[in-house]
Amino acid sequence: QLSSEETAEWKRMADKMRILKDEETGIYEQHDGYFDLPHVDVKSIPMSQVPIYKHWAYIKIFRFNMIKQPDFLNLPYFFSQDFTMEEKKANYEFYEARTSHESSLSPSLHAILAAELGKSDEAYNFLAYAARLDLDNYNRNTEQGIHSSSAAGVWASMISGFGGLRTDSETLIFNPTLPKQWQSFQFKITYAGSLLEVTVTKEEAVFKVLEGDAVLLNVYGKPVNITAEGVAIKRK
Description:
By secondary structure, the protein is of the alpha+beta class. The protein folds into 2 domains: 4-162, Glycosyltransferase (Alpha/alpha barrel), CATH 1.50.10.10; 173-234, Maltose phosphorylase, domain 3 (Sandwich). It contains 8 helices and 9 strands. Helix 6 (106-116) packs antiparallel against helix 7 (120-131), helix 6 (106-116) packs parallel to helix 8 (148-162) and helix 7 runs antiparallel to helix 8. The longest helix is centred in the middle third of the chain and has 15 residues, at 148-162.
């Protein structure tokens, strides 16, 4: 149990934090001084120099604004309700162009946000990248071991990406989408002690309680009571 002194200390630290945001563009600075770093076009780096972190000295890498994963983009994912769609789009497009994706955590996060932003093909490609990261040795380091974080990211890309799941509200939020490459997909999650099944097709999203009591969800911005009989909602 947290003490009042500890929560007061957290509040004191939070109040002193600087929010590094360009008000004109809506883009948040990943760290102090990041906007001042010289730009390098990560898309133009030849495959012979991949993985970059094996071929470039760290002192060279850190001189540029190239990043291997977009740390800031975790915020509009985990705290989705605190950002507008315009802010999400601006920051996604800004940081994706500067990301080498050499971190196994990177493709899945991009897949999740791309799906939310309506960039379905981009989301699908990032999901496929995460799924085949080691199978196709994209980062040329599979011999060092399987990237289990990427495997977990594939699941998150499905559920939080195309399933549209967000957890930063009083109830679970779902905004399901479907890439054109699929006819449907289905997943199960446990929420509030109940096992739920979610099926997404080209026409609808169907929510059903398999075990436990009925639960209240937020689907496409509206409250929906989910029961064992199931509820079919027209896709948006």
